[in-house]
Amino acid sequence: MKIGFIGLGNMGAPMAANLAEAGHQVLGYDTAAPEPDGVSAAASAAEAAADADVVITMLPNGKILRSVADQVIPAMRAGAVFCDCSTVDVDSARAVAEQARNAGLGALDAPVSGGIGGAQGGTLTFMVGGDDAAFATVKPLFDIMGQKAVHCGAAGAGQAAKICNNMILGVTMIATCEAFALADKLGLDRQKMFDVVSTSSGYSWSMNAYCPAPGVGPTSPADNDYRPGFAAELMLKDLRLAQAAAEGADADTPMGALAMQLYRSFVEEEGGTGRDFSAMLPRFAEKSRG
Ligand code: NAD
Question: How far apart are CA 290 and CA 272, in angstroms?
Fold first, then answer.
């Protein structure tokens, strides 16, 4: 296939490189980052998109997605598919999908889970919103860039799945970290805490696969001085998107709201920027109740 790939940052570059390595013709564009091996350079987003069967975007936020969509959608061939893999607000995902459909294009929102390691290794999970035909067209590309693609429903359903998942992740990571900090103060050894909880009803991905305590459980960013991994500011972004969606849908999400507040304090006031989101454990460990 001919693929236009717009946004060649930490995630986009390895995803585009994997598509090129699998034999697809990839024309890439980024306002700042260089093209990875195997990806040709376009002079503009519109040029990257003009001849493509599928255009993939991997951009920082919904505002930038909307501006790139304005440039790219009029340039695309009828019948081609616009597939956004960024994490953005549900409203932007739906607006861009409608714009694409009105221009005679297929449209998908397909945010990912799996991080930079998953992008490099081609093991991402895609959560996809949009119609069946567009999903069928892009599925072979999801299979190269990832290990799983779940078609979640109509436009916006992929972003909805992503922010619900990450709201659970933010809440469970905080619960796991505050429980470790409490265990410390109760004199309970962290390894014993892990041995019990990881095989009891408090288990979760945060405890079992990504344990926030250094030297305990499988290797995780905690064992690398909390270098990300998944940076706290990216978790904050996703928790903000979840709260914006909850407000729009009139959903009561008190735990998600509190998780967002705690990550906002951590990132904006407590030096959490650039640290892994599991660095909530040393944050709680240093604090007292007052
Ligand atoms: P990044 O900042 O490394 O990459 C974004 C790229 O977009 C940059 O290279 C930037 O120059 C480019 N860009 C910005 N404006 C542009 C424009 N108008 N035209 C063309 N290019 C433009 O970010 P990332 O870590 O690659 O994340 C991309 C998306 O994936 C985000 O929405 C993020 O939330 C999501 N995501 C990231 C991770 C992760 O672990 N990094 C995990 C899952 C999802």
Answer: 20
